[in-house]
Amino acid sequence: MHPELQLDNQICFRLYTAARLITQAYTPLLNQLGITYPQYLVMMVLWEQDAQPVNDIARRLVLETNTVTPLLQRMEKQGVLVRTRGKEDKRQQIVSLTEKGREMEERAFQLIPRGMGEELKACPLKLKDYLRLAEELDSIINSLKNK
């Protein structure tokens, strides 16, 4: 057997497993908000800056617009955002939060950071470790997304 092909030697497996388990830990918290993890990502983008074109949201999430569009359609049906045509370019869709979507930010703030802190309290990492890890993961993401 080639050591390069052993599961324990794969960083991708660790990244995949950590991402899957973290997303799983978010699920009960997000269920209280009535949204999924991908929808939560969209909401965070819009809480940072409301009224954005679909293309900008997709770019920020490192996703294709054809992946984001069905997600936005479901969220619009839930009443947390609206899509309108751009003023200058009618082909462009602008995504904006509704009042319900804006109110959700405060509920998310009360639930998510504390809830995830509880989920990760057994982990020996400190805040500085998470910040360093985020920088390292950003390096990987930036290297791969520019291909």
CATH domain class: Mainly Alpha
Number of helices: 6
Number of strands: 3
Globular, elongated, flat, extended or rod-shaped: what is the shape?
globular
CATH topology: Arc Repressor Mutant, subunit A
Topology:
Elements: H1 11-33, H2 37-48, E1 52-53, H3 54-60, H4 65-78, E2 81-85, E3 93-97, H5 99-119, H6 127-145
Antiparallel strand pairs: 1-3, 2-3
Descriptive report:
This protein has 147 residues and is mainly α. A hairpin with a 7-residue loop joins strand 2 and strand 3. The chain has a single domain, classed as Orthogonal Bundle (Arc Repressor Mutant, subunit A), CATH 1.10.10.10. The protein has helices spanning 11-33, 37-48, 54-60, 65-78, 99-119, 127-145; strands at residues 52-53, 81-85, 93-97. The protein has a 3-stranded antiparallel sheet.
In short:
By secondary structure, the protein is mainly alpha-helical. The chain is built from 6 helices and 3 strands. It has one domain (3-120): Winged helix-like DNA-binding domain superfamily/Winged helix DNA-binding domain (Arc Repressor Mutant, subunit A, Orthogonal Bundle).
Keywords:
147 residues; mainly alpha; Arc Repressor Mutant, subunit A; globular
